[in-house]
Structures are given as C-alpha cells and as structure tokens.
TrEMBL record:
Keywords: DNA-binding. PROSITE patterns: HTH_TETR_2. It comes from the Bacteria. It comes from Devosia marina. Pfam families: TetR_C_41 (PF21351), TetR_N (PF00440). Residues 34-53 bind DNA. The keyword Lyase does not apply. One of its GO terms (molecular function) is DNA-binding transcription factor activity. Residues 11-71 form the HTH tetR-type domain. This is TetR family transcriptional regulator. The keyword DNA-binding applies. The lineage of its organism: Bacteria, Pseudomonadati, Pseudomonadota, Alphaproteobacteria, Hyphomicrobiales. InterPro entries: Homeodomain-like_sf (IPR009057), HTH-type_TetR-like_transc_reg (IPR050109), HTH_TetR (IPR001647), Rv0078-like_C (IPR049484), Tet_transcr_reg_TetR-rel_C_sf (IPR036271).
Length: 198
C-alpha cells in the first residue's frame, strides 16, 4: 500500500470536511448544522475543522466558494452551446436565475449565504462575476450588438437583477412559476441593451 504524503492527507481531510459541511448545510441549513455531528460522521473532530477552516463560518464560506465555482463552470458550458455571443450572454444570465430551483443552491447560496456572509455584493467571488460581465458587455459593444453603455454600471445592474430574481425564486411558494416570470422579465430587460437596427 502506498504511503500518503502529508499534503495528500491534508487535502483529504479538507475534502472530507467540505463534503460533510456541504451535506449538512444543504440538508438542514447553516443554523441547525452541528459541527460535532457532521465532523463525527466523517471520522474527524471539531479540532480538525478549526485547524482547516477556523470555525463553522469559515467552512461555510469555503462551501459557498466551492458551489459558486461549480455554478460558474456550468453557466459557461451552458452559454457555450449557443450560436451567437448575444444568445450566450442571455443564456448565462437566465441559467443563473434558473439555478435557484436547485435545493442546494437555494438553501446555501441564496438563503443562508446572505444571512451568514452578508451582502453577496461583498463576497470575494463577486469581483470575478463583475469582471466577467463587464468583459462580455465590452465585447458585445465592440461588435455593435449592444448600445454604448457604462460597462460597470450596467454589469452591476444586471448582476443585481439576476441575484434578486434568484432570491425571489428561492423564497417563493411556487418557485417554478416565479422562475418562468423572472426569466421572461430578465430577457426583456437585457434586450433593452440591443442596438437599434438602422
């Protein structure tokens, strides 16, 4: 049997804690997730959690970052299937809104995330989203697809619209119905950016 290195054991412990925390946060929520319970289930101690993540909030932040990274990959893949840059742009925004229908994202990212980590606009991952949105808008403007706009202001407005729509869905009694309304409204909103044909 191969001997594992210290770095491999550290990575394995972190992965176990992330998986256990993610499962607990997704199933019962941040407030009810007991550090002792979810660490014991994977054969670890609360001390291991403190060592690797500082505390429960630190683990939660790492779980949010993990899910957020997965969401970004999925959205890029979804957008890549479209035929034009404009369709890709719309599909990525709608894809984010529709992810609010997924139970894990609904609970961890959209409900508990703001309650535990504060305003999503201040999350570390937001800067990456904003940069990507501005770059996409700049490309669309350079290609003459959309009007000349204030890139940062527009990126922030559209990001805010999609985030608020996702939160609306996450807290709705009928998420499917709200999702249909929200995605239709988002599409109409972004279509206002299109350059008028001469």
């Amino acid at each position: 049997m191969a001997v594992r290195t210290r770095s491999e054991m550290i990575a394995e412990t972190r992965a176990k804690l992330l998986a256990a925390g993610r499962k607990a946060f997704g199933e019962i929520g941040y407030a009810d997730a007991s550090m002792d319970d979810f660490t014991a289930k994977v054969g670890l101690t609360r001390g291991a959690l403190y060592h690797h993540f500082g505390d429960k909030r630190g683990l939660f932040e790492a779980v949010v970052a993990q899910i957020d990274a997965e969401m970004a990959v999925r959205l890029k893949a979804r957008a890549a299937k479209m035929m034009t840059p404009w369709e890709s742009f719309i599909e990525e925004g709608i894809g984010y809104i529709e992810m609010a229908l997924e139970p894990e994202i609904r609970r961890i990212i959209l409900r508990d995330g703001p309650a535990v980590l504060g305003d999503p606009a201040s999350w570390p991952t937001t800067n990456g989203c904003m940069t990507a949105m501005k770059e996409c808008l700049a490309e669309l403007a350079a290609e003459g697809v959309i009007r000349d706009v204030d890139l940062e202001a527009t990126a922030r407005m559209l990001t805010g619209a999609s985030c608020y729509a996702a939160t609306w869905i996450a807290n709705a009694e009928d998420p499917q119905a709200i999702s249909a309304r929200a995605t239709a409204a988002y599409r109409r909103l972004v279509e206002g950016l299109l350059r008028e044909l001469q």
